[in-house]
Amino acid sequence: MLKNKTFKNISLTLVLLTCGYFIAQLFNYSKLSDLDNEHRGTEYMNKYTVYALKIPDKFLFADEKVPLDRWDIKESLDRELLVNTYWQSQTLLFLKRANRYFPIIVPILKEEGVPDDFKYLALIESGLITTIVSPAGAVGFWQFMPPTARDYKLEINKEVDERYNIEKSTRAACKYLKDSYKKFGSWALVAASYNAGRTHIHSQMKLQNAGSYYDLLLGDETARYLFRIIATKLIMENPQDFGFRFRDSDLYPNIPTRKIKIKGGVKNFADFAQQNGVNYKILKLFNPWLRKPYLTNKYKKEYEITLPAKGYINFAFSEYKKPQVEKK
């Protein structure tokens, strides 16, 4: 009887504890449901939490209105904001790399008369990875395919590929974008055509009797393309609003550089690098457009080699020594 009574007491205690737990959870839930859209409440904020994101009522891309009063447009932007906010590692790398490379890209966009917002197109095309190559063979920040690159005067051969040259490829991209604007008269359509091709966008506009990117029914990649750019712009202009916390020292520095002009060939870039105060690795990191460890320069063309500014980076060199073979 004692055992049965004890067992009943234990069972009753467990039932009461379980009920108490669920009552507490309901109380906590009711407290959370009272939180406003700004997610106030320190108890809530101290936990890892996934938030719905606020979509702006008004927004401009390249000084053109984005029609966020339309539910389809708002939901398309919401998707890309969520993806880029909660793919934290990629977006944080975007912020870090942008600090290094936007100071190179932005002045060229301005000189060429292309809206500043197109720096974000380069970012989503390549992630600002200098040596990136797509499965289709598109190369560099602006992801040029060989025919288009050659149309816009970029040199491509076994020794040189200027699609990897940040300054030259950015100028070529500007010319391409401006040519597209002459055709479409809309920067949103220019961005879409950069992804899908001018011919495809033009044919879809004609087929669908549509005069705006926002009215076109397009394949998933191109339909998302401009919204990826817009979402990236929103996050990178106000990263703290989307939960990104970093110090200036966490960002990759924009390294001061110097230019060395060459008109002849270079037999060995490892020797060339050492003669100019850097190692081969650094020379190739700053000049990924040099595709071989040498340059024949058959036609005596003038090239500019980019290197870190003198005194900015110092290296200690260790010479390669051929391993000695023990004599038997």
Secondary structure layout plus pairing:
Layout: H1 2-33, H2 42-45, E1 60-61, E2 64-65, H3 71-86, H4 88-112, H5 119-126, H6 146-151, H7 166-184, H8 187-196, H9 198-208, H10 220-237, E3 257-262, H11 269-275, H12 280-286, E4 303-308
Antiparallel strand pairs: 1-2, 3-4
Explain this structure to me?
By secondary structure, this protein is mostly helical. It folds into 3 domains: 9-45, no CATH class; 60-250, Orthogonal Bundle (Lysozyme); 257-308. 50% of the residues lie in helices and 5% in strands. It is built from 12 helices and 4 strands, in the order ααββααααααααβααβ. It has helices at 2-33, 42-45, 71-86, 88-112, 119-126, 146-151, 166-184, 187-196, 198-208, 220-237, 269-275, 280-286, and strands at residues 60-61, 64-65, 257-262, 303-308. The strands form 2 sheets. Strands 1-2 form a two-stranded antiparallel ribbon. The longest helix is centred in the first third of the chain and has 32 residues, at 2-33. The termini are far apart.
